[in-house]
Structure formats: C-alpha cells, structure tokens
Design goal:
Keywords: Hydrolase, Signal. The chain has about 1100 residues and is α+β, with helices and mostly antiparallel strands. It is built from 19 helices and 50 strands. The radius of gyration is 31 Å and the shape is globular. Residues about 1-30 have low confidence and may be disordered.
Amino acid sequence: MLSSLKFPIGWLTLLFLALLCSPTNHLHAAKPNVILIMTDDQGYGDLYCHGNPTLKTPHLDQLHSESVRFTDFHVSPFCTPTRAALMTGRYPARTGAYRTSSGLTSLHAREKTLGDLFTRNGYSTGMFGKWHLGDCAPSRPMDKGFETSTWHRCGGLTQISDYWGNDYFDDTYLVGDQWKKFEGYCTDVWFDESMKFISDSVTDAGGSKPFFVYLATNAPHGPYIVADKWKRRFLEAGIKEPQASFRGMVENFDWNMGRLLKFLDDEKLRQDTVVIYLTDNGTSAGARFGEGSRIYGWPVNPAENANMRGGKSSAYDGGHRVPLFVRWPAGKLGQPRDIQTLTAHLDITPTLIDLCGLSRPDSWPPLDGRSLTPLITDPNPAWKERTLHTQMHGGNGYRKPGDLWEIGAAMTTRWRLVEGKELYDIKADPEQRNNLAKQHPEIVKQLTADHQTWFDSVKSGMQPTRILVGSEFENPTDLTSQEWTVSPGNPPWARSHVTRRMIANGPWRINVAREGQYRISLSRWPSSTDQPIDSTQAAIKIAGQKKTLVINDPKRDTTADFLLDLPAGPTELWTELTTPDGKKHGAYFASVERIDSAEPSQPSVLWTQYGLADHTLKLAAHTDADPLNPIAAMAELQLKEKNGWQTIAETQIDPLTAMATFRVENWDSTQPKAYRVICGKSQWTGIIRAEPTDRAVLKLAAIACVNDKYAPYAEAIEQIVKQDPDLIFFAGDQIYESNAGGQIVEANTTQEVPKAMANYLAKWRRFGMIFRQVLRDRPSIMITDDHDIYANDLWGDGGRRMNGSRTTGGYPMHPDWVNAAEKTQTWNLPDAHSPGPWGDGINAYFTALEYGGVSFAILEDRKFKSPPATVVKQAIPDPRTDKPNRTPEVIMDPAFDASKLDRPDLQLLGKTQEDFLSAWALDVKRNRQLAAVLSQSPFVNIGNYDVTYGDMDSNGWPQSARNRALKAIVPSGAVMISGDIHFGTLHQHGINDWGDGPWSYSLPAFASNPNRKWQPSVPAQGREFPGVTGSGNHHDRFGNKLTVRGLANGYNGYGIILFDKTNRQVTLQLHTMNADRKPSNETVPGWPLQIDVR
C-alpha cells in the first residue's frame, strides 16, 4: 500500500521543468577525475609508438594517439627524486627525498603532496603501488594526504623493508598501515585495487565526488620477474635475460593499461577523467648498451632507446627524458599532438591545479614547477625560457656527497650541460655525441652559474627526514637498515645483504615524539620470519645512553629487547649485533615502541569522557590496552578530598574496548570535584563539573565529521576550551575508515573481532587524543554514525546483519564488534531506554538526558531505518546523461515520482524509539523545559552533492516515518541538532505545512570536506530571508517541506548552542574554520539564529 503523501500534478510538472532548465543545475561533478600513472624504469624508447622494434604496446599506443604528448619532458635520473618532484611540484633536493636509501628517501614533514592537495579539494584519493617516499611516519602515503593506499615499502619488491618473502606473485602489501596478502601478479594487483577504489568512489554520493588515483607500478623495475607467458616470445626470438623478462613486464603493464582504459569506457568515466602517463627515469633493461654502459654509453640498437644516449641513472637525455601523455576528452585540450617545449616532472602539480581548479594554500612550500596549461590550450602561449636541472644526488655507488654535478645536467630548450663539463646542442645532436664545451665557453659559464645558483637554493633541504617514533601516527615503528644514514655509499638494502650478513653499520636519525619509556627490539631478521637472532651480544646507543645485552640463546631468541626512558626530540639510534665469530654489524631490523608504563602488564590511560545524570556519574577511561594481547589490568578512580586523593572505585580494564568504566551512584552534582584515573604509573586528571542547574544559560558545543587529515587541530581545540561550553555533543563520524592509516579490518566472525577492534582503536585513539583536553573537564554526549561503525551509509533495519548489497540494509560488521565500538563512544550516556539486544544481537543506546535544566533526547536514526531495497529494486538513472546510476539509494531522474518510495510500514526510528520520543516530548512540555533532539542526520533531504538528486540515505526518506517522528517532537518545542551533511544549515521542518515542525540545526563538518550543499533549483515559495541565498519555503526531492533560514555552504566549523532558560530562547551559533581547519570566525549570513520557545 502506498503512502497517502502525494504531490500535486502541477507541482511535479513545475519541479521537473525547473530541474531541466535551471542554470544552477549541475549534473555531475565540476571537477574532473584524475588518474596519474607512472611505471618504474621504463624508458622513452620502451614503447612501440616510440619506435621500439620488439615491444608490442597497443594500449599505450592507443593512449598516445588520444593524448597531448610532451616530447621533451624530463624527470630525475632515477626513482625517489622523480617521485618527490611529481608529488610536490618541487625539486627533490628541497624535499629530503633525493636518494634511494641512506635516510634520504623520505619526504620532510613540511612537504605537501598531490594527496594532500586533492584531499583538501574534496576528492577521494588513493595511492597504489610503489611509494618510495618514506616507509615510516611522517612520510607514508597516509601521512601525506592519501585517504586510501595499497603499497609496498622501499624501492622495490624483495628489498629489505618489503614484506619478507614477496616475489611478485601472491604477495603481501600494506593497505594503509596493515599488511594484507593479495592474490595475483603485482602489476595486476595495483590495477585491480585502483579500479576497485574508483568503483567505490563513484558509487559513493551518486558518483558526484571526484577521485584522484596515483597508480605507480614497481614494474618493470628489477628483479625482472614475470609469468612465462609474457616473456616467452622474446626468449623464442633470441632475446636474452634480463631483457626478455623486462619486455614481458612492459607488455603485462600494457595489458593492464588496456583493462583500465576499457573500464573507464564501460563505466562512462572516460570523458570526465584526466589520464596522465609517464615513467620515472630512463630504461634499466630495455636496451643493451655498449662501452660506458647505460650511465655513459649508447645503446647497441639505437631504436631500443629512441636514439638517445644513456639509460637509468645517466645524466644524458636517455636517463631522464621520458614520455608524458595527457588525455582528457571533455577538457578541451585540443587535438592529440606533440608539444616539444622543454618541461619537467615539477610541472605536473601546477598543471593539475589549473586543469582541476584546485586551491593550494599560500602557506604551503612554494612550487618550482610551472603549469603546462598555456602550452595545451593556447596556440601561441607566452612561455618564458628557463633552465631546468636534473641530478641523481647519489645512488648505488654514490661517492661524492655535496658534489653539485654528480650525474647532473643543466638543460635549456637547445643546450644540455652534462656533469658541468660536456655541452651538447640537443636540437642538432639528439644522440649527444659532439661535445661543444670548447666551442661555446660562454654557454658553459652561464649554465654553470645557473646550476650553482640552483644548487645553493636547494641544498639546505638535503638533510635526512627524521623518522617519527612514539607518536599517535605510528607506534611501534619498524626500522630497517635501508634507512641508516650513511654517506658516501649505501647501507644494506637487499635481501642478499641480510642473508650473507653484510658487515656495515650506520645510525637511524629519529625524532622522539613524546617523552616516555620505550622498548627497542633488535633483530637480524624481520619479525614476520620468526628466525633466531644468531648473535651473542647486542648494544644500542641513543640520546646519550649506551646499553649492552648478552644474548643467552642465540639459536632460539629472535630479538634483543631494551627498555629505556627517552626524552622528546631529535636523536640518533645506533645498534650493534655481535656474530658468533666475533664480527660486529648494525641490526638490520629494529622496532621502537613507546610503552609509557614501566610495568609491561599495565596499560596507560590516554583520556577520559564522562556523563552526569540523575545523580549518577558514568566515567570511561580509555587506555592503550591491546585487544590482541589481553591482560588482566586494573584502573582506579580517585577524587581529591581535603586529606588528599581517595580511591572511590576500582575496575578491570576491558581488553576488547581497552576501557575502564566507572559508575558512581548518589553523586553530589552541586559541587565540582577534581578526579584522576590511575593505571600502573600512568594517570589522567580532570574536573567533574558542578551541574549548572541554577545558571540562566546553558552552553552546548556541537561537533560533527572529524577526520584526521588536519590533526591535531590545536588552535580549534584551544578556542573551544576558551569558549568553555558546559557540555559537548559529537553528532557522529568521530572517526572515518581512512583515519589512522586508511585500512579497516573486517570482522565477520567472533574470532575476528579482537583484530578488528585493534584496528578501530587506532582510529578512535586518534580522535580521543585530539579532543582529550575538551573531554576531561565537561560531560559529553556522543552518538555513532555510519563511518564510526565502518558502514559508509547505514540502514540498520532493526539491528540485523547485512546479508546482501549495501542498500539491502544491515550492519556489515559482526554484532560483537559493533557493540564494542559503540560502547567506546556511548557508554557514558545515561542508561539506554531499550538496550536490546535488537535484531541479530546489536545493542541500542537511545536515551534521554536532563542536564542543567535542559532536556535532551538522544536518538539513533540509522539503527532502525528501513533499507532502500525494500522499495527500489534497481537504480533509477538520470535521463539527462548516459552515465549510469551506480547507487540505487540515489534518485537521479527528476521526473520520478518519489512518493512511490514511501509506505507507512517503513521505519526511520522504529516504533519503540518513536514511543520513547513521544513520551519524552510530553514530559518536556509538561515541565516547560528547553529541549533539544540530538540525531545523526537532519530529517530532510537538504544535503546533496547534486541538488536534483534524492538520497535515501537522508532522513527525508521514508517520509511517513519522518513525519511521525517530527509530530512526536513538536509538543516539546525542541530544536533538533544533527551532523552528517558536512555543511551548516538552519531550517524549520514542515509536516503538513511550512513552519509547523521543529527547527533544525545541521552542523558543518569540523574537519571533513564541505562537499555537499543546498542550492535549490526551484524558487522559494515565500518566506525568503534577506542576504541568504536559497532561503525560504522549499520542497526537498522527496516532497518534504522545509523553510531554510541560514546556510553555510562550503564552510567548516562547529556549533555553539545557548539555551537561555530565563527568557526561553535558544541561540544557534556557527563558528567557522578556514581551509587549514583553524578558527576563522567568519560571519555567515543567517547566523546566529535566535528561537523563541513558547
């Protein structure tokens, strides 16, 4: 039976015409998607379309034929430096990542990457493959802006810091910061994961959120390993190894490129996606070289190297001139063609800023590159001549620290000055055979001066990036000898160096994040192998301390463990292992972990949160206990009395949630009381406030949508503390799946729950450490939203498990995990009205709180909500475009009658919660209290990526259930406060008519991108407010009435709500934050709004 809610025919017609004709309507994201693809060690000549006589690369050839091609494009002569310049738009030497080992492969903490840039601009960002810009914090992909990453450590598979045993097939890679085993060949996996990420991205929010993919394969870097089917034809043609396998790796990459291009076509993403292809340096094994090898020589067959001199690691053009293809069918780039202007990897970042309309803060490190957009779009661009510089700055065999010319070149459009002594006219002599330095001393002098000036400008950055240990970003930190700082030469970096026990040593340069006790474990082998240390003695030297340890059983012990107190700040870690025959070398592997407590059996207290209601104190202490290694540990709650600290409660720490929970009855809420929680030698202190019952105004701070991309938000936290709210409300999405490394661990069985909780707690602790100064001294109200329980949209359908696709409803994680995760955030709330368990064993926490004379209804508006699949069997597409609708919950057809989606039996809150809400509202009315309803999402479809869409994830659907809830609230006169939609709104709900429902304040995102908005395509039907665009009486896409009073499209921030009990007024404030998530306190039209409660 369909709902009695119907739209008048005239109104539907008006809406349909307006949506089709409105100039403000945008069907899809204005910003293009971007896929940046880079291979490893493939040279300019390693493509058929560039004249290679043996390779077949039909898909790269296809991309070549469809692209704008830069034919004089240059990178660095080898790996890490190219990646640093590509990611930052800056010369590698400035960034700290300009060698391939020796502690000089990691980006400085100050450097900002394309991951940072695109994430900041509202893109979904993913990195797949080879990173080689830092194995440890602060330089990993997740530290540098990427929300999702599947990657391998170090410079190549099978190197020391790679997962031991990887061999290109069925390997184990990092997903965020968690190791995960994959099936298949490495290059196939990188493409599979990239396409999966794209599918997930375009499925989210109706496909209107753009994505940025950085796909950097390790192939065809050595060791040259590929399935026989890819190299067989080369071997049969008489091509020997390693060239045969190298070519097979290139052709496998080309096959994968074909899969990706077809995927973009099939998914209708081709037109709106920028595809960029390049390589990181010249060929490593694509050509055979004669005298001088690939560093100084010429290829035996010039066609194999595009007639260039040199290959990988060479200062000649063959070492750093590489392909650059740019394709964007909808981008008006002009006809596919060659552009012969001298360009470089430094130019990619500024080019993407222009092409995609990105904003980059002036406070970020300045760019060295130049946008290529004028060359692409202008037939007669004004392009100033410049000198570019490329240099290895060291690598295998590096012997000249500080030499500004070692394997370096200064380049202009016409000239190449190589290593400061050879000058070539590249236009007349592309093979660089005729040294003209003697004929043109003035050019040598000028380019030498240019190069010296450049080197002087970058050399201050040529310092190792200190590895951050003991931080909330990474603890423990796994170190390998690959990052020893040695100069000249290289530290042990290959597996063979470990197996043959290379005698060498060097320090790790580290930065201790926090003073405390640390465990430093040394080993000869990686921990995953569980092999014996085979050493008689171990020693360390760090922060002025030296310690030596005799190893009693070298054939059985796997590590040598040291406990010591470390001060915060920079230091060096030296290690030493003594072999059974008396030789000494540094430990190839080390783990550094901050443990804080001197008692290994005692976790440390990190922060607390508490609630106070009905003379009952509920306080939760969060610790660093490990669910994977449960121990019996106790915590004490103490109060400060006149005669000192007194223990009032003691409890065991729950190993699954890492919480100690204290419940104190008969609490005297009229007096403030200092408290502390003690566990072992750790403690955390705070104040239990006196309940402000007699105060005229109650101040509530309200926050929603906290990712960790701009952590620690110190200025914003300081401002909130100074504003001194009486209590604080967190409206959901306290964590995101992309936080703390980006990987989630699934829990489908009871046995998997502890591992999944350990993964969750890393993200939860990141949140807690951000807000702990706010939480320690005031009560908090916290509710969980979809991301908090790893759902990414949730229709809980009464608390059941998910047994189908996302839109069939239910929880994707095991009920035990859901209950544990929700307990960490909500335990301090007043006891639940109807805790359950519900459905398949999931608890509920909805409840009421009276505090300071104000009454709060705390709802769960997702746990009981009906799923879209109940009424939508297949996605409803948009007839205005040929692009598919991948999200059945999003109604894209503006002519579709959304009333067909409503039924009276569908649920939003569920009957039990509706009854609770009705009874609560009548109590509020009877007691003449000011009140608020706290929920995850507003009860209207106001927040969309595309305003013409109807999103069933919003609480505008189902309409009948929505209206029942609003009618229940009306008698209370309560204001509704919610999060979820990422931007601030003040609106009044309409039930039967505009203005007959409660007022609602939807909070802006505190940290997440404000990438939704209210931008109505239909004019208001009265009650517009001056200065507020989009205000007045409107219908949402489901036909619900709303009156918009204030908007904050595009703003981050948080809310302050003042409940004036004397004058019965509620004032709703918006406190804005800038793009760096620092307080800006910009005035926004419509705020503050004052509501008179009658």
